[in-house]
Amino acid sequence: MTSRSTETRPGGSGAGTIRLLRGNRPFRSLWCARSISFLGDSLGLVTLLLYTANTTGQALAVALLLLVGDFAPSLLGPFTGVVSDRFNLKRVMVLCELVQGVLVAIIALTLPSLPLLLALVALRAITGQIFQPASRTAVPALVRDRDLERANSSLGFGMNLSEALGPLAAAVLLPIVGVRGVLLVDAATFVVSAALLASLPALPPFTANEGRRASFLSDARAGLGYIWSVPVVRTIGLGFFTVVAFNGIDDVALVFLARDSLQGGDSAASVLYAAVGTGLLLGYALLARYSGRVSMVLLLLLGFGVSSAGNLLTGLAWAVAAAFAMQAVRGVGISAMDVATNTLIQRLVPPVMLGRVFGNLYGAVGVAAGLSYALGGLLLDLTAPRLTFFIAGTGGLLATLAIALALSRTMKSRPSQASPVERAEHD
């Protein structure tokens, strides 16, 4: 694989999103594969949640399903990224999609009892956790450096649109084909995604040297060591973790805000949960259209601050409509966080370390979300929904200020040469 800075790739400079997708066949294949796979993920998750709730009648069972599907695999972040750095990215992605398809098909055909279902869901989630850093690492190998912002924005838009459509598709399909049928559709989306990914060019791993390869555990340790030893990467990672740890509580608190504070019902809560998704789609669409006009460091800080302010202002909302608007603002901020983080990491981190950095970063984000759910739930019980949102947003804004100061010190600490961030901004 050639260097990111010298390789000539399709999808010319400054191309619009549609032009990028039309002119860059490999990136278009990745975009379609991710969008289709996310559609299957979304409708499959809704189906499994309903199936588990209906067969067990226990909220704990539903919570366990979410736990093994989201939180548990994130603990393996230091190891999942190693796979991307050691093996051909194309083969890793294709194999991961096929394995996930087989596991979902097994669930569909057997509809197992809860213990076996949790085990199968955990295996599928771990495979997905391996796929994530591989897909993010592949982006700078498929598009020009100047198109990274637009590529990451368009990927985010496609995946979130698919995730929003998934529950609607499940609502239509469940009465027609039942649980087994919907899960088989989910399995088929993985097969389609794998076929699209198989059309990508070869994406062999970067190697630091041609000598004896270190052990898997040593590579995982080196990934953690790299993140901690590079101030700008460490600051971005700690910042993302802290902001999510403060603000992830909204997933738990929105239903209580709608019901208790705003005197709404289940429909009001559903509307509020849709607000973040609406903001995400709007944010990704705007970033895809106007990418490159804002510094990625500034966009990162804006994302942290706007997403946190959205929660703070949600706590002050006087009606469901106002809360919806503030949560939509939060969604716009999250899209900025995502695009800026991915683009900065893709530019700042050497290719040989990219998979491990992404694996650790998004693994840590999963842990932060889990902590936010747990501690935020306790805060809700001790206080009230409005105060919970206010505390979460305030904490996120203070964290944003600390991150801004830390990044400023990092850039000023290299007076004799441009900092990694400055080099990334001028590439």
Structure description:
The chain has 427 residues and is mostly helical. The two termini are 20 Å apart. It has 16 helices and no strands. The N terminus and C terminus are likely disordered. The protein has two domains: 181 residues, MFS general substrate transporter like domains (Growth Hormone, Chain: A, Up-down Bundle), CATH 1.20.1250.20; 204 residues, MFS general substrate transporter like domains (Growth Hormone, Chain: A, Up-down Bundle).
Q: Key terms for this structure?
A:
16 helices; disordered C terminus; 2 domains; Growth Hormone, Chain: A; disordered N terminus; 427 residues; 81% helix; mainly alpha
Furnish the topology, listing elements before pairings.
Blueprint: H1 17-23, H2 25-56, H3 59-74, H4 77-86, H5 89-110, H6 114-142, H7 148-197, H8 216-229, H9 231-247, H10 250-261, H11 266-290, H12 296-316, H13 320-348, H14 354-382, H15 385-412, H16 420-426
Helix pairs in contact: 1-2, 2-3, 2-6, 2-7, 3-6, 3-14, 4-6, 4-8, 4-14, 5-6, 5-7, 6-14, 7-11, 7-13, 9-12, 9-14, 9-15, 10-11, 10-14, 10-15, 11-13, 12-13, 12-15
